[in-house]
Amino acid sequence: MSIKKSGSAVWQGGLKDGKGTVSTQSGALQDVPYSFAKRFEGEAGSNPEELIGAAHASCYSMALSLILGEVGMTAERIATEAKVSLEEVEGGFAISAIHLDTVAKIPGADEAAFQDSADKAKEGCPVSKLFNAEITLDAKLEG
């Protein structure tokens, strides 16, 4: 099976004075603005790193749900945040690390089985496999 999804971007102008928009095939994002200031100077708005974080968090949460199901657990809720680190390196910038913070509410969950599932999801998530970055995880069960 092969599934193809797409995202697109349009950029106009130079790096620092230019601006762009990003869209997704589904229309969930449509002409969302991004710019140098939004990416590097903290200006409000979208940027590639937050989009990568959202993609990773959503993929990881789905992967964790799958793996939990394989060990007989069903989460009422899985909340994941992916913190993407963009670092200046020799020759430019690189995404050096992504840290996943996930909290799951699973009635009657076994802590050891949950932690094992969380680690397997981190390694097995298709988006995790995409990155050449250190991926770390803190996984917690919610009471």
Task: Explain this structure.
Keywords: Oxidoreductase, Peroxidase. InterPro entries: KH_dom-like_a/b, OsmC/Ohr_fam, OsmC/Ohrsf, OsmC_Ohr_Peroxiredoxin, Peroxiredoxin_OsmC. GO terms for molecular function: peroxidase activity. The protein is of the alpha+beta class and 143 residues long. The chain is 33% helix and 35% strand. It is built from four helices and six strands, in the order βββααββααβ. It has helices at residues 36-40, 48-70, 111-124, 126-130, and strands spanning 7-12, 19-24, 32-34, 77-89, 92-105, 134-141. It has a three-stranded antiparallel β-sheet. Strands 4-5-6 form a three-stranded mixed β-sheet, covered by helices on one side. Strand 1 (7-12) and strand 2 form a beta hairpin.
What is the topology?
Blueprint: E1 7-12, E2 19-24, E3 32-34, H1 36-40, H2 48-70, E4 77-89, E5 92-105, H3 111-124, H4 126-130, E6 134-141
Parallel strand pairs: 5-6
Antiparallel strand pairs: 1-2, 2-3, 4-5
Helix pairs in contact: 2-3
